[in-house]
UniProtKB/TrEMBL annotation:
Gene3D superfamilies: Ribonuclease Inhibitor (3.80.10.10)
InterPro entries: LRR_5 (IPR026906), LRR_dom_sf (IPR032675), Surface_bspA-like (IPR053139)
Region (Disordered): 269-292
Stated name of the protein: Uncharacterized protein
PANTHER family per record: IG-LIKE DOMAIN-CONTAINING PROTEIN (PTHR45661:SF3), SURFACE ANTIGEN (PTHR45661)
Native source organism of the sequence: Triparma columacea
Length: 311
């Protein structure tokens, strides 16, 4: 049986699993701490004009919530405010919002698109982590920091534009974004923390400044990058595929093979000894080592492309 309640801003209805409808007393200016947390039958709600703050955990775990209207006067969305609202498909964040807390939309697994308003400067820890249906997101120019785990496990996100003002991409910020195929990192970014793009297996196009500081295993298991670099015969392949980005043994072997064929030994983890590259003439007499450039010249162009394609 449907159950309704009147919210005055003082009483919490947390974990009321039968609550389906809420009305608000006139004059309410905030949705309090965990006010409707765990109200698993609450499917639709309209926050009234006059509310300026949605506090921590306010609607967390409202697993039946499919739509919510946030008024223009709201300026702050607290930590975990809508986390695990697994049926929420869309939400409009008003332009006046300047703060979106950590975990605010954590594991909103049905959310397909979202626009972050101008004025927000930080995408906090885990804010959109686990939004597995998210295919599009707009990050405004005001953002300077993308914090750790911000978009991790957004497995449907195929592309994202990082604005020029961003200076830091945090630890695991895009980890396991398995559909992400291309990303451009602006020159303003000075630091990409460890594991930031780890397990982005579909990532084939990457643009970044050579001056950026790269954290440990930042691009580990981004195996499609290797094929993409080979296909385009990228001149900076030794930098793009630096072994510190790839701790996986199989990947390291492929990187070493690619760099070997390209004649660049500077970044190979374990280059073969010179004696291993010696050849013999047809008369059995040992000949001088074959230089890398000569090795490449000996390979027909078609075969060379095939080798690069399948490394």
């Amino acid at each position: 049986m449907p159950k309704s309640a009147v919210y005055s801003g003082k009483v919490s209805f947390a974990y009321d699993h039968e609550l389906t409808e809420v009305t608000f007393v006139k004059g309410v200016t905030s949705i309090g701490y965990m006010a409707f947390n765990g109200c698993s039958s609450l499917a639709d709600i309209t926050i009234p004009d006059g509310v300026t703050i949605i506090c921590e955990g306010a609607f967390c775990g409202c697993s039946s919530l499919t739509a919510i209207t946030i008024p223009d006067g709201v300026t702050s969305i607290g930590d975990g405010a809508f986390c695990r609202c697994s049926s929420l498909t869309a939400i409009t964040i008003p332009d006046g919002v300047t703060t979106i807390g950590g975990y605010a939309f954590y594991e909103c697994s049905s959310l397909t698109a979202i626009t972050i308003p101008d004025g927000v400067t930080t995408i906090d820890n885990h804010t959109f982590s686990g939004c597995s249906s998210l295919t599009a997101i707009t990050i405004p120019d005001s953002v300077t920091t993308i914090s750790k785990f911000a978009f991790s496990r957004c497995s449907s996100l195929a592309a994202i534009t990082i604005p020029d003002g961003v200076t830091t991409i945090g630890e695991r910020a895009f980890r396991e974004c398995s559909s992400l195929t291309a990303i451009t990192i602006p020159d303003s970014v000075t630091t990409i923390d460890k594991y930031a793009f780890r397990d982005c297996a579909a990532l084939m196009k990457l643009s970044l400044s050579p001056a950026v500081s790269i954290g440990e295993d930042c691009f580990s298991n981004c195996t499609a990058l290797i094929a993409a670099a080979a296909d385009k015969n990228m001149p900076n392949v030794s930098d793009l595929l630096h072994y510190r980005w790839h701790r996986n043994v199989a990947v390291i072997e492929r990187v070493n093979a690619l760099l070997c064929l390209k004649g660049t030994w500077d970044h190979v983890e374990d280059p073969p000894r010179r004696s291993a590259r010696k050849r013999k003439r047809t008369d059995g007499v040992e000949a001088p080592p074959l230089r890398e450039s000569e090795a490449r010249e000996k390979i027909p162009k078609v075969l060379w492309r095939v080798i690069l394609e399948f490394l």
